[in-house]
Each structure stands twice: as structure tokens, then as C-alpha cells.
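Lecture 7 notes: from sequence to structure.

We start with a single chain of 544 residues. Read the sequence below before looking at the structure.
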Amino acid sequence: MKYLLKKRIIIPILASAIFFSTTAFQNDFFEIAKQLEIFTTMFKELNMNYVDETNPADLMDTAIKSMLEDLDPYTNFMNEQDVEAARINNTGDYTGIGAKIQTLKDKLIVVEPYKDYPADKAGLKAGDEIIKVGNTVVADYKENAGDLLKGTPNTPVEVTFKRQGKTQTATIKRAEVEIKAVPHFSMVDDKTGYIVLSRFSRKAYVETNYALRDLKAQGAKKLILDLRGNPGGLLNEAIHIVNLFVPKGQLVVTTKSKVKKYNRTYLTQREPIDTEIPLIILIDEKSASASEIVSGALQDLDRAVIVGARSFGKGLVQRPKQLTYGTQVKITISRYYTPSGRCIQALDYWNRNEKGEAVKIDQENYHEFKTKNGRKVFDGGGVYPDVPMGTYKTSPITTAIVNNNLIFDYATKYHYSHQIDDINSFKLTSKDFLDFKNYLKSNNFSFETDTEKALKKAFETAKKEELNDDIEIDYNNLISNLEQSKSSIIDENNDFLLKLLTEEIVKRYVYREGLYDYYKMYNPEIKKATEILGNLSTYHNYLQ
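Now the structure, written as C-alpha cells:
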């Protein structure tokens, strides 16, 4: 009671004091304090009086997530486990078995063992289903079962797993795992270097710097920097990487916020490595955040030719804020702008459609900007490449195939039923695609379209209203036609699905490192980049 009395006295006093300093801030403070008091009172009454037992932590977690859903997908509450996962993502270091793991309800799936790390040395392979860690059954474990694989370096952990229906065990000695920001760099030909930058962790600049110097020492006179699939990361690392190719003191990115201290202008701080080497950046629809800062800045400065598909279009900057009990909240604090002044944010999270979904900014609302040489570039839809290619128009059905792990599972099946002696000559055929379609059927893959849902609802209404039997005949015909249409959509996405299948299968035989070597021979974007760099007049024409 004393606590409530104090609160009721202190809050008005503080609010009154702030009123005399700034009316706007006073209004914000009063509204925040008011809503907090309403919420804490309600939360206490609910947990004390609800008819069934409540879990305060779960209720609060739901309340926080529901509140943040109205903002953007990058403003997130992070519990202690999330904070640790973010640390690993930023540093690339942790102690464990050295494998990418997917946590399911009753098992852990080995998605990708890292070459020469403990899981790989112990014989684990992609597709293995870990059902027991030590004496702990994964299905009975209430927390994140993936944490069971982590621990002190050199300590053993026994895992029980299923492979192709057979149960096996393996003892793995944990080790320090380093996830590289640059997992691969090599020469494409005697004059062209190739660097894959997969994440903007704290080692991104150091590793890219090393790769660039090493390739130049090998004779590289031209360079391809592959940012495809790179979701971003640390903004400062992006600035330092741009700095490898442009002089000191060059504007790279500007951030703008409603909070003055977050309004920043970022210039390059170091001496560059090479401001002349012909450079091509590869991007795709999964290149986001820091990837877009690098590609957008180098495009605006006419320092690189961009090849690939339109980037994701994030355009937002987050900053973690420390909370109590080891938790954090990651808040979107500003938008970023490339040197020409464009913001490449593609989705409007504030003005949503009737379904509550963020909407794409209409192309008619894009604004034109100019690069250093006067080329036209536009805001509002990610970084648009100078040489567009590799764009696949995906559908909800193909997305469902990927999300249901059917690409991954088929690759596992393929790996155990096919021996490939020379991966460099590997190529999937139309016969393989037919086999994949049959695999979908045998695994009862089904996807209900919005059209089917609407028809089903209309048919249920018709039955309640006891309309004639002809409607049922028409309904069944429509559903049959839709099934044929869905099969046609899978055929129309043949190239996209074969690409995903090929990548997943190649990794099974030669790890991710071998996939990059496979790319250098067959990937159309790399071949196009090499072709452009092979004719410097063509290269420079793109920049004029």
C-alpha cells in the first residue's frame, strides 16, 4: 500500500516538474507513465485472480511480442538465449560441435556439418536426426535442446541419432568454433579474384582485407565480391569494407532518426587497398542491411558494377538496448541513406493493408537520384542491379516446399541413393525433376491456396443454405482444376527448384567450400561477372 501511495505521489510530482521544462516531453512522459501503471495493475490482478494457474513469464512474453508486432520485424525483445545467439552472430565464435542445427519439437536436425570440425570428424552428416544428447531425450527437453550440444572445449558429448531409419551413436569432443565471415576466396581465372562475404560480423573487414591482399598477391587484377544471401550485420564493418575500394574521407552512409544523437554521417576512416581494381558486386533478394550499404554505396560512387537480383530493401538500422536480467531489446532507431541520398527501404511497416501486412512501396512513388557520374538510381525498392539477372518469381507453393524442408529432405534421399565420383560434372536432369515431383506426392505435400480456402468457405455456406446439388459438382470441378493448376505452377518454377536442389545436393558431397568451386564453373551470375570484367570497355560503359 505504501508502495502504491508513493508511486501515486511521485509520478504527478515528476510529471509536473517536467511540464515546466518542455511541454512535449511532459505529454510523452505522462502518457508512458499512465499506460505503464494501467498495465502493471492489470497484469498483477490477472495473475492473482484468474481461475486457472497462469505463467507470468509466458504471459509477459506474449504481451511484449504482440506489442512489437505492430512495428517492424527487426524491433525485437531478446531473452538471455537470444542475446547469446546475437553475440555468436556478431563475433562468429562459440564452443560446440561445429554444425548448423535446426531445433524441432522432438529432435535436432543436422542441417550442415562444418568441414573438419568435431561433428564432421565424428561422422555426422546433413539430415541426421539427433534424438538424444547424453542421457537427455530431446523430445522431453523443455528448453532449447540445441544448447545441450554447447559446452566447455574438449569435453565429450554423446549423441544418439537416426540416419535413414537406423539409430546410431557418436561421441563428439566439443571445440571452439569460428564461423567465418569470408568462407571462401579464390581465383576464377588467372586475373580474376572471387571473394564470398556471407555475414558482417566483427571479423568481416579483417577477413575481406586479408582475402583481397592474398588474391592480389596471386595476380588478381579484377575482383568479384559475392554478397548473395548475406543478411547483413554490423554497420561499421560495411563502412570499412567500402573503404577497401574508395579513398579516406568518402561519405558512405547517413542515418536519420527522430532522436538527434542517432543522426550520423559515416565517412571512410582508413587508407584504401585499391581504388582502381575493376569490381563487380553480386547481390540477390536475400542481400540485406549492411550488404545493401556496401552495394548501394559502391553503386552510387560508380566504383562497382552491380550484378544479380534486386536486394531485399531493408533500409533500417537497429541498436540493442540493455534491459534487466540479461535481456535486451533491439530497436529500429533510424533509416539509412546511401551517398546519393536514397533510402532503399522496400516495405512500409507503418501503413499496413487490411490484413495487417506491410506493403511494398509502389514503383510510381520511387524517387530518382544520381550517382557520382550522373547515372539514374532510385529509392524505395532495394538496390537495383546494373545488370539484372538471376531473378526467380517464386510462388506461395514453392515457398511452402522450401519451408516444409522438402528440398532439404530430398537432397538427403538423393545423397544416400546416388554415388557421384566427379561433382564438377554433376547436373540434375528433367528425369530428376520428375522424381522430385513424385517425392512431393509420396510425402503427401499439400498446399491450400487462398482461392481454395475461399471456395471451401463458400461451399460450406451453400450447404447450410441447402442449395441444389449442382453446386457440389461445380465445386469439385473447380477444386480438381486448382490441383492441376498447382502442379503447373511447380513446373513453371522448374529452374528455381532445380537451382535449390542442386545447391543442397552439392553440399552433401563437397561441403559448402566445394559449392563455391562448383559455382565458379556453373553459376550464371559469376560467369556474367567474369565476362564483363573480361572486357574493360564494357565494364566502364556500365559506370558512365
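The two ends are 74 Å apart (CA to CA). Keep this in mind for problem set 3.
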